[in-house]
Amino acid sequence: MIEKIVVIGSGVMGRGIAYVSAIGGYMTTLIDINEKQLNHARIEIESLFDKAVTKTKLTTMGMEKARNRLLYSNFLAQNIDDAQLIIEAVPEVIETKKNIFQIIEQHAPTDCVFATNTSTMSPTEIGSFTKRPDKVIAMHFFNPVHKMPLVEIIRGLETSQETVEIVKKVAENMGKETVLVNEFPGFVTSRISALVGNEAFYMLQEGVATAEDIDKAIKLGLNYPMGPFELGDLVGLDTRLNNLKYLHEKLGEKFRPAPLLEQYVKAGRLGRKTGRGVYDYSK
């Protein structure tokens, strides 16, 4: 039975996962070597607690209990010696993930389950960085984590059924619905989302319509809750570009990133987190 969860990476996804983990009843430690980002995550999580109480999604007592279950740290090795589930939520760079998994392999208990919050990368490859590939799996959460109801669970080549059942139960306790996917680049949701978002950039580049009208057409015509540019700015255009590069390498030409997307990233227009992406948030 899982009682203690460690989340590595306090960016948008990591802080959201830590929040729903604490709400779900788990002793949770959020770890990031970047102290400034970790402090920012703490402020954001406190805001989520306050909003949940205001909207009566949590009682004041429930908030206090969840808050007391949540710890923050800049130190990795010292905080995982009794972890039962570690969820990695660092940027989508395979070398970064490799370094993380090699460290946690050395310091985590032998029965600890390792999950990666990747949206495209191979849990089989990530499992090969450890001596326990049967205990490695992908748990793909969606942004914003506290609102989005789905966790995509991706089984690697050697992932055991026991590991699948453990993370499925954890996700459900966090209030999520789950789907089980056999590993293939991009899984289900990322392949579709990457195609739609990339095609939107090609249309913007070609002058088919304005960004606002493309988003409006997709929302009202196809019943999407967000337009592709709104979503791209939310998750980060650098993240979207990294995903497309990976899918282009693995699945071919239909995932070649639009040149305009690459230009935006080179210009530092990454979305909401930098104040400007497709849209301007500085005001």
What does this structure look like?
The protein is globular. The mean pLDDT is 95. It is built from 11 helices and 8 strands. α1 packs across α2, α7 crosses α9 and α7 packs across α10. A hairpin with an 8-residue loop joins β6 and β7. It is of the alpha/beta class. It starts with a strand and ends in a 17-residue tail after the last helix. It is 47% helix and 14% strand. Strands 3-2-1-4-5-6-7-8 form an 8-stranded mixed β-sheet, sandwiched between helices.
Record keyword descriptors for this entry.
single chain, 283 residues, alpha/beta, 11 helices, 14% strand, globular, 3HC_DH_C, 6PGD_dom2
Secondary-structure element series: EHEHHEEHEHEEHEHHHHH
Q: Structural class, from secondary structure content?
A: alpha/beta
Oligomer: single chain
Number of helical elements: 11
Helix content: 40-55%
Strand order of the largest sheet: 3-2-1-4-5-6-7-8
Largest sheet: 8 strands, mixed
The poorly predicted ranges are none
Strand percentage, roughly?
5-15%
Q: How many β-strand stretches? A: 8
Spatial gap, N to C terminus: 47 Å
**Radius of gyration, taken over Cα atoms and rounded to an integer in Å:** 19 Å
Global outline = globular
Keywords: NAD, Oxidoreductase
Protein name: 3-hydroxyacyl-CoA dehydrogenase
Pfam family, one: 3HCDH
GO molecular function: NAD+ binding; oxidoreductase activity, acting on the CH-OH group of donors, NAD or NADP as acceptor
